[in-house]
Amino acid sequence: MSSIRLDRWRAAVTASPLPTRRTSFTTPVVDYEPPPIVVCPAPTSAALHRHATKALRSVPNVPEAGELPVPQVAAAFAETAIRRVLEVSDRRRPVAQLRPLLAPSLFDAVAAFTAAGSREGAAVLRRVRLRSVHVLDGDDAAAEVFASYSRGRRVRAIAGRVEFVKGRWVMVALQVG
User: Fold this and answer.
1) Burial of 49 (0-12, 13-18, 19+ CB in 10 A)
2) Closest to 171 (Cα-Cα) out of 98, 111, 95, 62
3) Domain residue spans of the chain
4) With contact defined as beta carbons under 8 Å apart, do 79 and 125 qualify?
């Protein structure tokens, strides 16, 4: 009796086809990027390898009217601090070498940031600029730092703040882009 039921079931299954339509859980992505208006030709080998016609010149850091000049010591400290942060992020220096340059609360954040490391190549500091913020308590001063660095083929930015606290310069804020 069971073999008759099994035969009937097989006949019913083969007689009515099973649905072959599969449900997709993904939808196609619509390309919203407009087509290019003008197609630029690829640069020639000669254009890529020619030397610059003008020599690069140094731009002095001139304060605007009513702005206090930035002490040279602050500029040297800011460049050193940013260079060390980049070297620590590339794992060319140990994190402990940042401790005398950064505020304690900032040190913990930078140590966590640099623990991941970078796989895109070494960072090269390109330019550092400072702008005097204000004089705090007579001797104490502060300056904002703006810098650019390159890592691989990309150019990135860093911003921060240095303050003269208890007789020495300390970086108290840092934003790495």
Assistant:
1) exposed
2) 98
3) 72-176
4) yes
How far apart are the C-alpha atoms of 87 and 97, rounded to whole Å? Answer: 10
What interhelical angle do 104-115 and 72-89 show, nearest 10? 30
Cβ(126)–Cβ(148) below 8 Å: yes
pTM above 0.85, yes or no: no
The residues with which 134 forms a beta bridge, in sequence order, are: 142
pLDDT mean across residues, the chain:
77
pLDDT digits (tens, 9 = 90+) for 111-147: 777 666 556 778 888 999 988 886 555 555 888 999 9
Query: How far apart are the C-alpha atoms of 32 and 37, rounded to whole Å?
Result: 15
Strand-pairing partners, residue 145, are 130, 160
Which CATH number is correct for 72-176, 3.30.1240, 3.30.1490, 3.10.450, 2.40.10? 3.10.450
DSSP 3-state assignment of 20? coil
Amino acid at 85: V
Q: Side chain identity at 157, as an amino acid letter?
A: A
Distance from C-alpha of 177 to C-alpha of 72, rounded to nearest angstrom = 25
CA distance linking residue 159 with residue 177, whole number of Å: 8
Residue 62 DSSP one-character state = P
